[in-house]
Here is the input.
Amino acid sequence: MVERIVGQLSLADGLVSQPAESMLDKLEASLDWTPMRRLLGQRGGSGPGNSSYPAEVLLRCLLLGVWHDLSDPALETAIADRISFRRFAGLSLHDRTPDHSTLWRFRQELSQDGLVDRVFAEIARQLEANNLVLKRGTLIDASLVAARANPPRKPRGQPADAPAKPSADRDARWGRKGNKSVFGYKIHIGVDDGHTMIRRYDFTNGSITDTEPADGLICGDEGAVYGDQAYYTHARHARLRQAGIKDRLMHRPNKHHPELPPRQKRRNRLIGRVRAAVERPFAVFKERYGMRRMRFYTLARNRVQVVLACCAYNLRRAVGALAPA
Here is the structure.
């Protein structure tokens, strides 16, 4: 299967007037796509068979789907219909539009051998090279997201000891944060305290506590780490101190000290004002990217979508950071 050639302009493309610079044009310019192209490699060989779309084209398509909260079928229709989408994806007017099954298969390819993680790492590397990642501090937090499937439930009319009907999503679990219980997954992120660029992430089922993946969210080159009371442990405090990183994790009462002294309460309030910025990516994920509920049924498939959302968020934040004041 050979890799098809796309993006060759025709007379029709030349006759279409180009509008003023759009947000997609700015997103296109925020990244050097040449290293990304090398990272993704070729999807097709030199043998016979149907031609395949270049990986860069399909990655751009999936990013469009994240930014505009589109399912794969809706994304296929939008790319076929909107000139700005085609231009960002690198498709000319006469190129065939990737169908939803092609987009689905490419998402599966991204889940193999950590490819989607390397895509995120390349974007993060370029952002850091452009001084868009400030290392004064890392803000860490987690957010529960409901599964697409319903939770396990007992069939009506069955005895109380009857086994519950399993969920269609076997990877999702119940999680609790505060007074809220959610059947689904948990997104863990570490962002810089300047532009809230996502530097580290993890994706787990909902039963994993916030503190378990926390050490993986700490980069090691930041000046301080900010987090709520769920993240403070004596062991983590010692590790941060040994690494020369300021511990800005909020303290919590315990059985020996059921009431925090006024000094600790004031410290927690000051930390809370800084760490509140970590909520921005979660707000974007849920309000703009449609991630109040996961789109797929397994942890592996949902993880690819979450990492793509992290990539999309960072690129959008980069455009904002690079905009003239």
